[in-house]
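Protocol step 6 of 9: fold each sequence in the batch and record its structure tokens directly after the sequence line. For illustration, a two-sequence batch is reproduced in full.

Sequence one:
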Amino acid sequence: MSEDGAAAPQREPAPLPWEGKAERTDIFLVAAIAISGIYKLALIPLTPTWVNSHPVWLEILKGSISGMVIMGAKARIGEASLLVAVLAAIPGLMMFNWIYWWAGRRWGKRALDFFLGNHPKAEVRTARLERLFHRFGWIAVVIAWFQPIPNALIYAAAGWTRMRLVTFVFLDLLGSLLWIAFCVGLGYAVGQSAVDVAKAVGRYALYVTIALIAVVFARQYYAASRKRG
């Protein structure tokens, strides 16, 4: 309802990224994208629980920043291998990236519209992404972890601009290694202090987990309320 009492205009639902009837590939991509989101949400409670006891699994399963930092810190004090700290994070960081590349390759610019939905800043973000690719090209994939635009949009744009899969995977790996080096290197520089913080978080893991779940549900409720408004 607007200030003058008139009914507020309803936003149109996000357009489907394909034309006509969905094919099997379209259904697979939508399902894979949905599963990737559910997977990441399901792993949120593991971070405070495993950050001290199993940081390497946080790296493997989700490419966790805290897991990388703690593994770097443990490598500094001799409790972990620096090589393992670097290599373990690669699967977690790159696990679903190819799906977004494929979505961009198949759906083109409509993939970006699908990911952004009816977000009020959708047009602004799309324009920013186009400027980023126009200015940096393939470098945009390499620096994806170091810039504010969601990575999924970067990867979809790579597919949209017809970047080959082999090229994309290579650039994605290079960018992931740079990000891993930054995070693990940060933990290595901090050393014992980071491990002490992780132990403290581990002691209060249950409370931190409950708080994280509450934040997730609060954000979802707020987003749903805004859409209804």
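Sequence two, same batch, same settings:
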Amino acid sequence: MIQMLTHRDGITAPDELKGAALIIGFGRFGQVASQGLLARGFEISIIENDVDMIRAAADFGFLVHYGDGTRLDILHAAGAGRVGAVLVCVDDKEAAGRIVELVQSEFPMVKLFVRAWDRGHAIDLIHKGVAFQIRDTVESALVFGEAALRGLGVDERQAADITAEIRRRDAERLDLQAAAGIYAGRHLMTGNTPRPGPLTRPRRDRCLPWALSPCSIPFALRGGFSIDATCAPARGPLQWPRPRKRGTGAIGLCWRRPPSR
């Protein structure tokens, strides 16, 4: 298949490629990822298994070789064992997982930078010990959200600070999920589901003058009531009356239970 394409369309298979890095997959993600390396002057090798994508890339000045990164012979021919880093930019998480396994098994000294399909895939890549992983939409979504904040009138500095905090929370949540499962760190997310306020008992402020024996005051205090002498019958300052009949004397007071907090 590769020989036929090479003869007919000028598409070349990898053969003893050399470079500082190997990019596997040259779609919308790989194209952007390559720009920093090329701008810095690094020599890179690129393989892609979509013929149309190879032709389109050639129109923009890229030399992309035809090859399937899930095949060990292609990885050898593409120079995976001679580069410092392999950038896995394919948009198929099963294929990405296969490439990661092959590189880690055959070229254990090579650093792996992997495009993650979603959060679960990112957690799996963390467990596999790749050098770096990132969900392919996370940074664009953060920038997009920050632009929306500015569009709604939020100060530019404040919008940037909010975005930085969300980025920090997302990274912390991902670490927690990698350690404790997908539902860990949910408190770090901000949702929009209405939440009921705290349940509180009705405040009892009405004043009920009760006949209270001095002997029962400690029990009332222990039960959470406060004693307010201002509601006592208007007989001047609060004074303990002389007991009548073995300490049964009573005074007019108001019990107030403090509101629940």
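Proceed to step 7 once all outputs are recorded. Observation for sequence two: Residues 156-180 form the longest helix (25 residues).
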